[in-house]
Design a protein that fits this description.
Number of strands: 8
Strand content: 15-25%
Number of domains: 1
Mean pLDDT: 90
Largest sheet: 8 strands, mixed
CATH topology: Aminopeptidase
Oligomer: single chain
CATH superfamily: Gcn5-related N-acetyltransferase (GNAT)
Distance between the termini: 11 Å
Amino acid sequence: MELRHEVPEGGEDRVAELYWEAFGRKLGAALGPAPAGRAFIAAHLHRDRAVTAIEGGRIVGVAGFRVGGYGLTGGTAGDVLRAYGVPRGLLRLPLLALLERTPAAGQLVMDGIAVDPGCRGSGIGGRLLAEVYAVAAAHGCTEVRLDVIDVNPRARALYERQGFKAGRTEQTPWLRRLMGFGAVTTMHRAITPAAPLTPDTPHTPRTPGAAA
């Protein structure tokens, strides 16, 4: 399996497919129906804000993140209005705002991990996270932050095995019928930033997008 620090060119539709399969219930109220949601995600991806796992030439996993002012999933309010029309778009904007997560200083915020259903349980999620930690360190971050919803205990178990610690849990019962979850827990994992290179520091150049 190959790991890349990018969404390969031409892989936008596949990443959108994986994201919708993993998060469609949560995203559906804001970006549905599914074909429109997948198209919107694919059209507004930032390819340099993800780590992807590729097997046999096919993307089987993706971990998106937000650092340096933007994340994997993009799109402005204007993009939403153009894609869905003004009346429907205006109704969707508050829902999208509920999902927005802005990193604090020194943080990388996860946009989510999505793994092909047929590949789950094979360690891909852990390998993607390890690469995200390297990205965070390279950006000088001291912490990775993410949110996990109450109906995804499998994801929470993965994060706990990876050393994430649970922080604040926000109860959101009003979102259960709309987005399928009733509570969100913020989790944190400390990161040691990468040491800056000096003339005495050995360094082997890496090809952009190559696996670590």
